[in-house]
Structure formats: structure tokens, C-alpha cells
Amino acid sequence: EAGVAQSPRYKIIEKRQSVAFWCNPISGHATLYWYQQILGQGPKLLIQFQNNGVVDDSQLPKDRFSAERLKGVDSTLKIQPAKLEDSAVYLCASRKLAGAPGETQYFGPGTRLLVL
Amino acid sequence: GEDVEQSLFLSVREGDSSVINCTYTDSSSTYLYWYKQEPGAGLQLLTYIFSNMDMKQDQRLTVLLNKKDKHLSLRIADTQTGDSAIYFCAEKGGLTGGGNKLTFGTGTQQKVEL
């Protein structure tokens, strides 16, 4: 079974530029998450989708961050414009809709963003 | 909101046991998890425990949960160099704690030395 795929793996941009990240979850996983992991901290949930609907985006800075999952499969996360403090690893994770608790979330390798 | 705390670093000699500790604040937590993160990789689920259990053993891993003190620990027996990584504790809130949302700790960096 293929894992969660993310691209690009690394991105360097200047502040005020825009950037987009892409995630392809495990096949059949209805729930998709985007996390932000700042160096030295644990992952922080930005947004959770169930199919193509948003379940939780309470911690997403909506003035600059947006995310979509139009067909309920792949997802993109966009930052526009980027700030220095957005430098972090952006992790995508997916989960079966009604999986057992041990299913929990499967994580992709992440996209490492550096804003200069 | 929910808070999960861990010590930052841990060093252990190969072959010894290590214990990684975690404290959390959400009294309505339903499940607690341990994840491992190796350099440049995503998080890998190691094990989890239901909040009405106090111990779970899985090969070299032993999870202890003290619900009264909101304290979780992960013991790794016979540590190997491949156990060098960052370990994250995470809790899944109950109905009053954000539903299915996972709250992660700050991570403990474990180094296994020869």
C-alpha cells in the first residue's frame, strides 16, 4: 500500500511570496489533515477535511493560509503572502473515515519551507 | 486548551532501557499515542493506549498510563541505535476536548549511544 505523498519536499521563498503544497493521501482514506511543525515543536493541526468538506480549521490563519480538497482526494495548502514565521515543515496525514483507534493518522514525509 | 508536555532530550546507552515521559491536561482524553519521527521523515505510529487502561506492552515497548496524574510513559527495552529519534506523545480529546483532534507534545529527542 502506498503511503501519503507530498510535494515538493523542500521549498525556499522570500517573504511576501506565495507558495503551494500538494498532498495525495492513502487510497480510500476519507479524512485528511494538514499540520504545521515548527522546529523544536510538535505538529499543530491547521485544517482537517472529511472527503471534500472542512471539519476543523480553527487554527488556520485564514488571512494568509488556504486549503482545498475539491474532489475529496488530493489536497493543496497555500500560503499567500508568506511571512518569516511560516518557516516550518508542513505535514499531511490521512485516516480512514471509521477506522479503529489504532488506525489513527498516517503521515507523509512533509514539505520543509524556508522563508527568507 | 489542551496541553501536552515532554522533556526535550534523553541519552541512553545501547542495550539499556529508556523511559520517555509525557504529561497532559485534558481529563477527557480518550486515547493516547506515541509517535516516532526520524530525521527528514514524517511521524510513525508506535503504539497507543485507551484511557481506561493503565498498561500496554508491545514487544520492546511498554506504555504506562496514570490517568489520575495525567502522566504517560513509554519504556523501550534493549535500545538500539535505530531507536535514536524524536518521540512525540499525543492525546485525542473526548467530547469536550476537540473530538478527533490530536494534540501533540513538544517531542523528546532520544539519542542511543554505543
What does this structure look like?
- The complex is a heterodimer of chains A (116) and B (114).
- Chain A has 116 residues and is mainly β.
- Helices cover 0% and strands 47% of the residues of chain A.
- In chain A, strands 2, 4, 5, 6, 9, 10 and 11 form a 7-stranded mixed beta sheet that branches.
- With 114 residues, chain B is an all-beta fold.
- Helices cover 0% and strands 55% of the residues of chain B.
- Chain B has no helices and 11 strands.
- In chain B, the strands form 2 sheets. In chain B, strands 2, 4, 5, 9, 10 and 11 form a 6-stranded mixed beta sheet that branches. In chain B, strands 1-3-8-7-6 form a 5-stranded antiparallel beta sheet, with no helix packed on it.
The helix-strand sequence of chain B is EEEEEEEEEEE
For the largest beta-sheet of chain A, the strand count, sense and barrel status come to: 7 strands, mixed
Helix content of chain B: under 10%
Shape estimate of chain A? globular
**N-to-C terminal Cα separation of chain A, in Å?**
37 Å
In what range is the share of β-strand residues of chain A? over 45%
What's the average pLDDT of chain A?
A: 91
Mean pLDDT of chain B: 90
What is the subunit organization of this protein? heterodimer
The helix-and-strand class of chain B reads: mainly beta
**CA gyration radius of chain A, whole angstroms:** 14 Å
* Unreliable stretches of chain B: none
* Low-pLDDT segments, ≥5 res of chain A: none
Total of DSSP H or I helical runs spanning 4+ residues of chain A: 0
Q: Give the biggest beta sheet of chain B.
A: 6 strands, mixed
Q: Structural class per helix/strand content of chain A?
A: mainly beta
Shape of chain B: globular
Largest interface: A-B, 22 and 24 residues
- Could you give the distance between the termini of chain B? 41 Å
